[in-house]
Structure formats: C-alpha cells, structure tokens
Amino acid sequence: MKDLKRILIFLLLAVLAYAIYVVISTGYFRTIENTFDGKLVKKITAAGAGAEDMMLLPEKGMALVSSSPRKKDLEVQQKTGGLYLVDLNSKAYAVRKLTTDFNKPFAPHGISMYKKDSVYTVMAVNHTLGGHSFEVFSLQDTVLTYERTITNPAIESPNDVVMLDEHRFYFTNDHKYEAGFGRFLEDYAGWSISNVVYFDGESYTEVANGIGYANGINYDAKRNLLFVASPRNFEVKVYRTNQDGSLNFIEDIDCGTGVDNIEFDKAGNLWIGAHPNLLAFSSYAAGNKEFAPSEIIKIEYRAKGDYTIEQVYLNDGSEMSASTVAIPYEDIILTGNVMDEHFLILEPE
Asked: pLDDT of the chain along its 349 residues, tens only?
C-alpha cells in the first residue's frame, strides 16, 4: 500500500512538473504590452486570409505574398490559396493575385525565390489533401508561369524552403508525426525530432535533425550561414554550410519568443515574425481565443556568441494576431500572419 502511494505521488509530481515545464517553455507567463516606436499605416485585406510568408522584389518595389485561408479546412484552402503581388510604390499598396489561372490544388506555405538575370524562380511549399509538395514557378515582370511540381518521401511535413539556385535548396520538416501521440509530444512536450533536408539537384539528404518544430529557414550566401527557426524552443539555430550541402552547427540564439519565418535586410540582419505565447497561439488557431499576440524581432548577427536582439514590435493581437514574417522596405515594415484576414504595413519612427 505504501509503495502504491509513493508511485501515485511520484506520478502526480511528474505530471505537475510537466505542466509547469509546458507553460514556462511556451511563454504562458510572459507579459504582453503593446510596444512599437511607430505607427500602423494600413491593414491590407485583399490578399485573403493567412498571409503567412512574404519576400521582397526590391528592384520592382513589390512583395510576393503566400496566402491561404487557414481558418477554413484544407479542402477550402487548396481551392482558394494563392500567391500575390503587393505594389509598394504607392500608398495604395495594390494587391494582385498571380495564381488565378493555376488549376492545381494549392494551399501555399513558405516561399523562396532565386533571381537569374531578370527572371525569378519561385518555389512554394504546398499542402493539399493529396499530400505535400513544392510548386515551382517562373516570375518575369509581373507574370507568374507554372514550371513543375516536386514530390518526394523526404518532404514529410514541409514548412519553409530556401533556394540556392534553380535546382538546389534546403527545406524544413516541422514535424515527424502528422497526428496522434507523437504529434502531441512534439507540440507540447518539446520532443525535438524535426529536421532540415538538402536537395542537390538529384538526391535528398537530411543535414540537420533534433530540432524543435523546424520552421523558417534562410541562407546568407555572403557568409555561408544557414539560419533555422525553432519556435518550440524559442531559438534560431545557426549553421555553416559546406560545399556538399552538409552543415556544421555553430550555435543556438536564445530569442525568448516563438520565432517563425526569417528574412534579411540590406545589412544582413535577421527580421523575424514571432509568437511570444505559444499556448495562446494554439488556442487562437483552434478557434477558442479571439486573438494571439504578435512580435517582430531583429537580430544583428556578427559572429558566434556575438549578436544583438532587438524587439521591434509587440502587440496583444488586437492589430494582427500570430505574426509569422516581417520585412523592412525603405520606410515601412510588412508583416504577415498565420490566419488573420489582413496583414499590416507599419511605419517605424
């Protein structure tokens, strides 16, 4: 009887310790105070719900936006998701859908571009009822043309992709398990088993693993550095790339927030949309909460152990919930999200 009591007490303490770990490690106790040295310029609704990823075409004064209505089920998403161009040359910020004539199921997620001469190759993660894939397009001027679809068993749960050229790329798989207890352990227990995969134009190779929800990914070609966001562990992982595509781990940057997509400014600084409270985000995504907080951080990365993290924007979600991406352009910042019906144009002071 005493042994049984000890076992029950031990199990109770273990459950309590687990609960404490989850709420602390997901930012539950973090205080959210609306902070931004600037003003909200415009809420843009024309790109549909869930403007999850964005990239700049700076010489055109435009931005490419990946959008899917994530408040709807996947069947609706794959019918109405698309890629959009946002004109940044005027304060109207006109938006035009580029994939109106694309007749395949398309619910885009992370995107990447590679420019050669005057033509961009565009790659978009695609989630459909038929499975996961990458859709590849060419973008010349403002005309988007479908090129091909990429599928492979290594594309397990793709979140984001970064192109090195027209054929080589890295991408993240954010989960090992699609559902069930394994998925629960990844999301809440912090089971770090997601990965990064490299495609050399012919074959796929896992080049990094043991990551907690591998998410945004970007490559700094000038420094041969690959940055990978791990929102579950509130960190950005830094790797040095080798000629064969393999990676050497350098360090983890503790960001104190659930980092998502990673973009660069002209100086090579990292700009990241983030989720400061993952439990609030989960509740919002499930439809149980009206808002989820948004955060934008900027990381000036100089060398191993030598970096500065600056909070640019923090909001309780009343302006926009669940930020995923942030891009500075001239005197504005574009920021997107998981599933809101609008994204924001911000103007810092």
From this structure: 667 777 777 777 776 776 776 777 788 778 899 999 999 999 998 776 889 999 999 999 999 999 998 888 888 899 999 999 999 998 899 999 999 999 999 999 999 999 999 899 999 999 999 999 999 999 999 999 999 999 999 999 999 999 999 999 999 999 888 888 888 888 777 789 999 999 999 999 999 999 999 999 999 999 999 999 999 999 999 999 999 999 999 999 999 999 999 999 999 999 999 999 999 999 999 889 999 999 999 999 999 999 999 999 999 999 999 999 999 999 999 999 999 999 999 999 9
d(CA 114, CA 84): 17
What CATH code would you report for 31-348? 2.120.10.30
d(CA 81, CA 99): 9
Cα–Cα distance for residue pair 301/224, rounded to 1 Å: 13
**Residue 171: other Cβ atoms inside 10 A:** 26
Residues 123-144 pLDDT 10s: 999 999 999 999 999 999 999 9
Residue 280 tokens read as 């609030």
